[in-house]
Amino acid sequence: MPHFILILLFILVSGCVSQAPWEKVDYDRQAEAYTNRGMGYLEQGETGRALQDFRKALEVRSAYSEALHGTALALQQQGDFSLAEGYFKQALQARASQTAVRNNYAGFLFSQNRYDDARKQLEEASKDIYYADRILVFVHLGYVAIKLDQPEQATGYFQQALALDANFILAHQTLLELRSKQQAWQQAERHWFFLRDAQVNDQATLKQALIVVQNTGNQKEVRYINGLLSSAN
Prior knowledge:
single chain; mainly alpha; elongated
């Protein structure tokens, strides 16, 4: 099932939040440190403690984008979707160039079945050619296209992901399935060959690959995959 990959932002700072010598004078570093600690709590699922630190960050820097973003993520985890969206928007207003925030906002919209809105955010995010996780933007655009029943567009997005990283397993797995549904068996088989060489042997991939090689008439691969499936049972 398509799912978005969450991106948590951590700002590199040293020192302890509660005892750092700059706590009362360097508000930028103070906001960064509180936000970092909040993101750490968020990663551990402690949303209440995370929100406390994000609040402290916003008390010293009221428009601090990273803290607004963290607040949005925490509220989303708590199921307070209306408030979460408000904080996503505030984070983008404070710093529109924060592509990771836009990606996560798109993930929020996707989870609310607002696929067209999610695509708009992702299309904007895809313009940031220097974004370190740009590959995820194209993967997420592919998921949106799948939900909108646009398999050709989805295929194109996952191919763009592979253009950025030819070894991205998730893209190969999704293209294996998409090409199978399109009955593009030879192209699907190429994705299986990559996954086989990468030793990707989960049941879903093997079953999909078996359908592919049965349709290409590759009996050697049929026997190989059946052997893997039998050994797993």
